[in-house]
Specification:
Blueprint lengths: L10 H6 L4 H36 L21 H5 L10 H8 L15 E7 L7 H8 L6 E6 L31 H14 L4 E7 L4 E2 L3 H9 L41 E3 H9 L4 H7 L10 H10 L9 E2 L19 H9 L3 E3 L2 E3 L5 E2 L7 H12 L4
Parallel strand pairs: 1-2, 1-3, 6-9
Antiparallel strand pairs: 3-5, 4-9, 7-8
Amino acid sequence: MKNNQNTVVPPLKLFNAPFQPSNLLSLILFFAFGLCFGILLTFQLKNVSFNLLFNEFPLYTTTNTTALPPPPTQNMRLEDFIHPSKIMHQMTDQELIWRASMVPKVRNYPFHRTPKVAFMFLTRGPVLLSPLWERFFKGHNGLFNVYVHCSDSFSNRTEPKHSVFHGRRIPSKEVQWGKVNMVEAERRLLANALLDFSNQRFVLLSEACIPLFNFSTVYSYLINSNQNFVESYDLMGPVGRGRYSRKMHPTIKLQEWRKGSQWFEMDRDLALEVISDKTYFPVFQKYCNGSCYADEHYLPTFVSKKFGARNSRRTLTFVDWSKGGPHPARYTRYDVTVQFLEKLRSDSHCEYNGRKNHTCHLFARKFTPHALDRLLRIAPKVMQFNP
């Protein structure tokens, strides 16, 4: 019985005993046990050390110091909503148009509202005739707002702080002449201007435009008008109906196709309709390409088809196309005389609020930057700008 009884070999004898399989197994079990014991001991020591540290240095202490007051909150005022002071934003075109198309159901304003004119400049770069416009706007703060849409390549140019153009550039995109993205830029200008609830009339201008009358005359003419000024007429031939695409049918029929100047003036109601149009503008985006020239056809067609009764079908911006070609006549410093400016101011007949009138154009183009010097010397006297 003594020979059959199993005996436990002491650990120290394992190293000196002759090699046997049973000895190897015992050695492995011994080291495995020691390893597990060491790991458990290490974790226990770490926990004890952390608890001692936590008790010695608590995460918070109670002191007699007074707690700091919370930072002041910036509550949004009504003024911030109806008259945005900063016109740069991060909205996409879709978000902008959605925001700008909001119309209050309550028609009575809960504040004193002085109607303003939004002067919207669609330019390739800076407004090079800005010194003339500075004199035009001088002394009439509170009656107008300026908005500039220009190519991104000119975004680094900044106007002096005292300028009416300072900080008035809206988020802009590249625009190609004759492409539908020019109409997209016009809608972008309208949408940004509509964010200010004081804007009642909207004028589209270029960097080559000049005013033909002083601010008081222009403001009164626009604010008191009961019509919109979007040129619209039916023109046969290749540059009229010849630009119509049959793919636009039946949304737009050939007999509804219109042509006109892109330089418009409109009231707030029509501006809201233009940016909210989801029926006709997508058709132009899709089918008015190449030689279609959407800027000469979209608004004339849309306004004539939907809002023709309140449209004068004429533009307020004089442009000379008598020389022919794809571009109008350009005026340099040699063209700027007192007689020339007087002719632009009164050389036509039209209707205004149902009555015959001799003041038919409030603006004119295309003037080159080289004409600025003579314009600054002659125009203020002819147009009677404020001194």
